[in-house]
Amino acid sequence: MSVDPVAAEILRRFRRVAVVGLSPRPERDSHRVARYLVSVGYDVVPVNPAVDEVLGRRCWPNLTAAPGPIEVVDVFRRSELVAPVVDEAIAVGAKAVWMQDGVVDEAAAARARAAGLLVVMDRCMLRDHAAMGTSG
User: Measured in Å, how far apart are the chain's first and last C-alpha atoms?
Assistant: First the structure.
């Protein structure tokens, strides 16, 4: 599988990832991806207003409450709920927004790009990082 050039750039350049919608349930994709990111050296910041802690890390109710700087916002939310997350990512000065498999919001992506953020949609961070092999 080839890795999208923007995805590869994000994975190489940035190490601090806020995972929005991170579930405490190990069988959920958000949990598996976040656990993997931690295992390969990323600093994961859990964001979920319904949970106090995930993966032994304090969980924040939103990006604004999370301690900065946030470099990448990895979004595990339904497409129709992405817009406010992207707006918050722009507001906190994130460098990139990554929408996981099945998550697409072209208008929010356009706003993020206009604000200078790198954007990936409908791709999995875990799968792309693993596909990069030792270069990630």
Answer: 14
